[in-house]
Amino acid sequence: MAEALFSYLSDDILVSIFSKLDGSDPRHRAVLSSVCTRFCSLLRQHHRLLLPLPPSHHFPNDSTNTPEILLKLHFCCPGLLHAGVVSESGFGSEDPIGKRRKLCNQKEHLASGVWSLSREQGSKLLARQFRDDCLYICDWPGCLHLEEKRKYRLFRGVFVDFKETRVWKALNDGKNKVKRKVDVGGCAFCKSEESWDLHSAFCLRRVFGFHDDGEPVVRAFVCDNGHVSGAWTDVPMYS
Amino acid sequence: MELLCIRQWISGLLPTWLSAWCIKPVGGALVRQEPEYILLALMGSPLKKIMLCSSEKEIFSVEEQVMVQHSVIINNMIEDGSYNHEESKIPLDCVDSKTLKKVIDYCTHHTHHHNDNQEDLEAWDAQFLNVDSNGLYDLLMAANYLEIRNLLDLIYGTIKNMIKGKKIDEIRRIFNIKDHGFTPEEEEQNRKEYPHFY
């Protein structure tokens, strides 16, 4: 069979072919990594040469932010649950179809919108005193979720060297440490079970404010490994 | 390599009006021929040829400078003097006649048409690579063996286009991967995590 010949390609030829793929689209690496263990191993060995995606260069030997997790951060939306928009405890009186649709958006899924992460977007989220912390967030507009009350634009991201950041110090500081911990069903990107509410810890810009019904305009949660999940909403035109 | 120097020297000597007159018939059309080639022909000095021998023992005579420009392996052999023009032929035991002829066509075209506009060259390349999987694989192996960089890049790009945007199961078919190597649990986990990609 003609196609059988391609199974004999050497590693360096395969690497050369993979390197031709568009590095800005993280799908390619996700797909190729899942084709077979040989491709997965080649991509791991050459991940800094192939399809380099920021912020992977910040995490050279980090076991909690492996290439696979960093890749997932690019295109996996955390879902309404992990972004803290809904809770796991039921929906009230919704019809079965609506309930099923909502279930689909609860958990992680392929994100709509742009799949690149940028530090600039992370800087726009954090309050001034945290501007030296390095946070990468997916670019605007995030993954759009149209819900009854309003539109939610879910985002995800990661802190570089999270335990060295001022945000981490602020979260662990003082008497209110326990109150800042929330349950959003664990982190969508790692095994971390607990998350911290960045909004109530005053880590986000004050200007974001609240809607009339008390919902924050921007919410964000971070796990112990620095993975961030959150949601933007549209700022009300008239206060 | 001395031939290239001669060619450059001649180019420097020629008046520009001569370029306008340097046309010759090729395949029923009149095309512009680099004046230095015509002048060399008029001077009675044949372009140096080398002999390439396919795995089927068929001999192909080709301009030395064409192969030297494109193949690192052949360039090295001629530069280090291991190739004797009078007696030698270069044996290419892993390239069959059909593939060798195509490789020579590619190198010859790109040498003689390097001044063509990019669109025309790309169109020619696309037509050149309009072959079946067997042919593509043979060309890839030949280009890899002879270290013909631009042909390799072209073929890598073609194979990349074959797999770009394809689902995992389709890529496995293209590469004939029967045993992907993942445990059943790993495969199930991957399918659960990225269902859209299967």
Task: Provide the residue-averaged pLDDT of chain B.
Answer: 81
Order of helices and strands of chain A: HHHHEHHEEHEEEHEEEE
What is the helix tally of chain B? Answer: 11
Total beta-strand segments of chain A: 10
Largest interface: A-B, 28 and 32 residues
Mean pLDDT of chain A: 80
Distance between the termini of chain A: 69 Å
Number of strands of chain B: 5
What's the order of the H and E elements of chain B? Answer: HHEEHEEHHEHHHHHH
- Structural shape of chain B: elongated
| Portion in helices of chain B | 55-70%
The oligomerization state is: heterodimer
Structural class of chain A: alpha+beta
Instruction: Give the CA-CA distance, first to last residue of chain B.
Output: 52 Å
How would a textbook summarize the main sheet of chain A?
A: 8 strands, antiparallel
Q: How many independent structural domains of chain A?
A: 2
Structure description:
The complex is a heterodimer of chains A (239) and B (198). Chain A has 239 residues and is an alpha+beta fold. Chain A folds into two domains: 1-50, no CATH class; 78-83 and 113-233, no CATH class. Helices cover 26% and strands 17% of the residues of chain A. Chain A has helices spanning 11-18, 27-35, 37-45, 67-75, 79-82, 96-106, 119-125, 166-171, and strands at residues 76-77, 109-110, 117-118, 135-138, 143-146, 151-159, 181-182, 195-197, 218-223, 227-232. In chain A, strands 3, 4, 5, 6, 7, 8, 9 and 10 form an eight-stranded antiparallel β-sheet that branches. In chain A, a hairpin with a 4-residue loop joins strand 5 and strand 6. In chain A, helix 2 packs across helix 3 (37-45). In chain A, 41% of the residues are buried. Mean pLDDT of chain A is 80; it is low at 90-95. By secondary structure, chain B is mostly helical. Chain B has a domain at 2-42. Chain B has eleven helices and five strands; from the N terminus they run ααββαββααβαααααα. In chain B, a hairpin with a 5-residue loop joins strand 3 (49-53) and strand 4 (59-63). In chain B, helix 1 crosses helix 3. The longest helix of chain B is centred in the middle third of the chain and has 16 residues, at 97-112. The N and C termini of chain B lie far apart (52 Å). Mean pLDDT of chain B is 81; it is low at 1-5, 24-31 and 40-45. Chain A binds chain B through residues 1-7, 9, 13, 16-22, 27-28, 30-32, 34-38, 72, 110, and chain B through 132-134, 137, 140, 144, 152, 156-157, 159-160, 163-164, 166-168, 171-177, 179-182, 190, 193-194, 196-197. Chain B: InterPro entries: SKP1, SKP1-like, SKP1-like_dim_sf, SKP1/BTB/POZ_sf, Skp1_comp_dimer, Skp1_comp_POZ. Chain B: Pathway: Protein modification; protein ubiquitination. Chain B: Residues 150-195 form the SKP1 component dimerisation domain.
